[in-house]
């Protein structure tokens, strides 16, 4: 049974501040059923397969232990790809030096006292019978003993892994037995029996791989509000080491599971650790709050250009900006230029995440709506439903109501902001409210109203909240006192979620526009009456103005006439001069749209 060996990890935890205990919601977990109070990933039994040690890493190999006293142990590596801490101990620490395969051998033996048995037949006289000075030798590893022959000979060892011989000098290498042979010129040979250490009881071998494991990424920049998670991935570990990886972090607020997946719920920086094949690998994690492009900069008018300038990225990764020009907007070297009405999508990548920023070319009306939205956003108003009509306060429905009021629209009421539910009801009556289908969500435009329901409240569609869509899946809305007095309650948010129940469009660029201008055909003034006829209009009607001043600032009278008529007789006290002009109008949702004034005509 593998024994507990935790001293190394205690030192490691003190050095690096690792969380190596079992955790619930933070710190480090062990994998494959190994718990911290039982086994460590860097401890192996000598008879295990698939073990690995990293270059500059250290693992602990536990040898076989005999129950009785009187046994000794010896370790040997088959090459120099590893070094051994204490080859004469029962267990051994193995440090990786270079990538390769190594065989470790543990030899268990009964030690013998070193001794040299002289050969009684040996005479130094060359005419004496051929003989060696020693007939047998007991040596310890690394000991040297010199053999002498009374003739010129060549030397050889039956096992150079146990004993090597050079010019008669024997060097003990490892536990075992070997025979040293001396051969003269005639081919006659004599031998010496050598025992190193003692009598071998048993041997155990372990095939070990020296690895060079690496983390796939050593820098992690995490979007706290977008993608606050990631995975530590590695390559180059041994097969067994990959099953024993220990993951850790310098900060207990990082949740790290047994597969290397991590998640962050606080704004922090931390080191992430993977301990594999006896080596600690480290990655740095930095929480970032990047701004891929200012949301207000995505709304353009014809002729405007904006440079995409990503902000607050970590600097740990490369930030790339890409986009494809179209007929409406062009993209060139991070600059977007608006040429005609439409949308251009750009992609900003960095900090292990990607962001889409849609740039819109809009008309003057939509541009003004969005201008008013950001104007109130910049005012950092406080959130309050009771005080929603006061200057320094706002709630969700009064925010969008104020935006449209300041842009010249009426959202349900001219004088008082309705609730979000009543704003939706108003749009529904005007046939400007739709369900949040995929096609409708894909067709969102700047200025659209997003209605949400988080609970049943008995109001229209149980609507509890409203926000103003801006661009790129983001919206502006006032919600709760979450941001406090310092930041204001109007904030950017993600527009589409499971609570979205309706989408409204108070202003539609395609349909909500002024009709074509009309023109006066004839004017006749008679007995305090003026009869005016004009060309037919496709709008809702025309507005007529009569005045005794060409500048229309003296005794001016204004009337509206339905589009069903093309003439009207107006009661008007005539004088020598009566000036008349008209313009077509169209009644929209929350606003009336007017054409330009016609040429001024004088009554005759």
TrEMBL record:
Domain of life the protein comes from: Bacteria
Any one GO biological process: proteolysis
An example molecular function term from Gene Ontology annotations: cysteine-type peptidase activity
Domain NlpC/P60, first and last residues per copy: 363-518
Keywords recorded for this protein, A-Z: Hydrolase, Protease, Thiol protease
PROSITE patterns noted in UniProt: NLPC_P60 (PS51935)
InterPro entries per record: Big_2, Invasin/intimin_cell_adhesion, NLP_P60_dom, Papain-like_cys_pep_sf
Assigned protein family: Belongs to the peptidase C40 family.
The protein's name: NlpC/P60 domain-containing protein
Natural source organism: Intestinibaculum porci
